[in-house]
Recover the amino acids of this structure.
């Protein structure tokens, strides 16, 4: 018998996770679609549900020492409306879904879904987000790139809850995000591209680049980012082909109903080129 | 499996014995006979089922009953008793923004959600606020015009809270 739990607090939620196999339900914007039935019928789940979207412990946003801590059940709208959060972090979130979905959907849900096309993920990979995972017996941190292991796959164990996302903040002078989809609102990305950079007229000091929806997980390459560090504008043009091919080897897109392998590969690399040649202005 | 769910609907307290996963759109239309809220796609894409949940625009096809506990829901039936609705309604008429009318309740509530936050929206801001609401008749321009007009004609009204 499928049960529905609405715990009063996080401790109670962790108790339930400890005792029973459950699906964690935060905003429900994906779960309600995945499990929907005919109009008028109750959505069908084969595992008990644990509601956590209402838990205040998971809804706070704090900034200290250049570190942003976002509760996993914060809605996307809550993040967008928080004036303390820098624009480069809001850029992909502002283009996600629609106003009504952003009012319900949570950042923790987007991570927990672990879709290769999850729209917060390239930004979170680029910023080295750390996830806090809690169970009844322990709390630990894991990097997002280690947490997500494949399409819809992650390390979360049946007794655990993703409780918080920690993002190191910095002053990035350049930030660039493109989402490619078939409708401006509410579409699942065919591909997405997120990049941040710092530098001056002489050279690039720091660059962070992440590709979404072109491999089983988000692609980020520290090796390729190192190739870009310390070089100047004219060197970017000279080394463009090397940089593009180092990424080309990492991208492994698929053909599906949203797009094709060839389109995804080509447009992703073109977005990389646009960022490096046209968007970087010092 | 039935649970007692308590929430506020259009200003009135509601207690319902209901399946905790039943969708709000079905509760409104089937249990409470409030058929102003429409179901289009049933998956959050079209906005025809939009209502305000604690003053925020949501798609009622994605909201299970368990999420309603202690919350406040405003549907088009409640909103239509307000001064703000009268302005929006007159402006939708004036601009010719209603053709088949199926998207209109959602459009009106999306407009309310926008104008409450931003009483003098630019055209682009209106389009962004309506991005989750599909209309297959008007081509949107007529709806955008109506909201621009309503912002002007209802000046001073929009930032006020709704008194039912």
């Amino acid at each position: 018998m499928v049960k529905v739990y609405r715990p009063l607090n996080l401790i109670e939620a962790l108790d339930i996770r400890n005792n029973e196999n459950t699906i964690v339900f935060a905003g429900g914007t994906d779960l309600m679609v995945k499990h929907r039935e005919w109009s008028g019928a109750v959505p069908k789940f084969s595992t008990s549900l644990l509601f956590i979207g209402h838990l205040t412990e998971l809804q706070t946003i704090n900034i200290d020492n250049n570190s942003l801590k976002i509760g996993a059940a914060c809605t996307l709208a809550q993040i967008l409306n928080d004036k303390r959060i820098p624009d480069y972090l809001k850029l992909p979130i502002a283009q996600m879904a629609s106003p009504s979905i952003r009012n319900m959907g949570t950042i923790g849900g987007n991570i927990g879904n672990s879709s290769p096309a999850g729209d917060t993920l390239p930004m979170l990979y680029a910023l080295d987000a750390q996830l806090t995972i809690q169970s009844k017996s322990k709390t630990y941190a894991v990097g997002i790139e280690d947490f997500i292991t494949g399409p819809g796959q992650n390390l979360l164990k049946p007794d655990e809850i993703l409780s918080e996302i920690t993002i190191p903040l910095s002053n990035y002078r350049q930030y660039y995000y493109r989402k490619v989809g078939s409708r401006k609102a509410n579409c699942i990305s065919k591909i997405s591209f997120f990049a941040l950079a710092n530098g001056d007229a002489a050279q690039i000091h720091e660059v962070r680049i992440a590709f979404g929806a072109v491999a089983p997980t988000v692609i980020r390459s520290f090796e390729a980012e190192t190739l870009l560090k310390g070089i100047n504008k004219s060197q970017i043009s000279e080394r463009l082909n090397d940089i593009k091919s180092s990424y080309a080897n990492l991208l492994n897109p698929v053909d599906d109903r949203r797009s094709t392998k060839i389109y995804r590969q080509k447009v992703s690399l073109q977005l990389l080129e646009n960022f490096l040649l046209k968007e970087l202005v010092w | 499996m039935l649970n007692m769910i308590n929430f506020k609907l259009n200003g009135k307290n509601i207690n319902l014995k209901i399946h905790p996963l039943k969708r709000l759109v079905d509760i409104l239309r089937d249990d409470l006979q409030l058929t102003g809220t429409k179901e289009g796609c049933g998956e959050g894409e079209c906005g025809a089922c939009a209502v305000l949940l604690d003053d925020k625009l949501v798609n009622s096809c994605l909201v299970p009953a368990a999420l309603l506990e202690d919350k406040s829901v405003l549907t088009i039936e409640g909103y239509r008793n307000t001064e703000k609705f009268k302005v929006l309604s007159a402006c939708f008429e004036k601009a010719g923004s209603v053709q088949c009318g199926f998207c209109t309740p959602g459009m009106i509530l999306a407009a309310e959600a926008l104008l409450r936050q931003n009483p003098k929206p630019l055209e682009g801001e209106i389009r962004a606020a309506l991005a989750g609401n599909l209309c297959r008749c008007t081509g949107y321009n007529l709806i955008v015009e109506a909201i621009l007009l309503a912002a002007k004609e209802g000046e001073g009204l929009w930032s006020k809270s709704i008194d039912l």
Observations:
- The domain at 4-168 of chain A is CATH 3.30.465.10 (Uridine Diphospho-n-acetylenolpyruvylglucosamine Reductase; domain 3).
- The mean pLDDT of chain A is 96.
- The radius of gyration of chain A is 20 Å.
